[in-house]
């Protein structure tokens, strides 16, 4: 989940100027639906599920790559934070706009991962998701086809 969320942050970076972003991970949780087995490739899809004044919520779906079976659902609350004053701050308007492009579809809509591709047009049926693939069978880290980061654990 962390890798997929990091890919989302990379996609949202102000032209790579991530030093201007100040986030803390306020909470995270993962509910396991079924077992994942050794040697199976897993895909993590991450979308933004809620945008607040000072924070946003990510939702993660961990699925078996081959079958598409849901393995787990996770959530993460991310807060815009001022490290000098040690207080939360409002999300910048431009960041809220960018996050809105990654909003998860409404309940019941299908999520189609496009490796961090943004929602093309409102109501087009194309959703955005950041994906990260994980394999539990080989070593070491490598980049796979379509520039999708793949990690081996």
TrEMBL record:
Domain of life: Bacteria
Pfam families, A to Z: 4HBT_2 (PF13279)
Entry-linked SUPFAM superfamilies: Thioesterase/thiol ester dehydrase-isomerase
Keywords noted in UniProt: Hydrolase
Entry keyword Hydrolase: yes
Keyword Nuclease assigned: no
Gene3D superfamilies the record matches: Hotdog Thioesterase
PANTHER family with a match to the protein in the record: 4-HYDROXYBENZOYL-COA THIOESTERASE FAMILY MEMBER, NOVEL THIOESTERASE SUPERFAMILY DOMAIN AND SAPOSIN A-TYPE DOMAIN CONTAINING PROTEIN (0610012H03RIK)
Name the record gives this protein: Thioesterase domain-containing protein
Species of provenance: Geobacillus stearothermophilus
Classification lineage: Bacteria, Bacillati, Bacillota, Bacilli, Bacillales
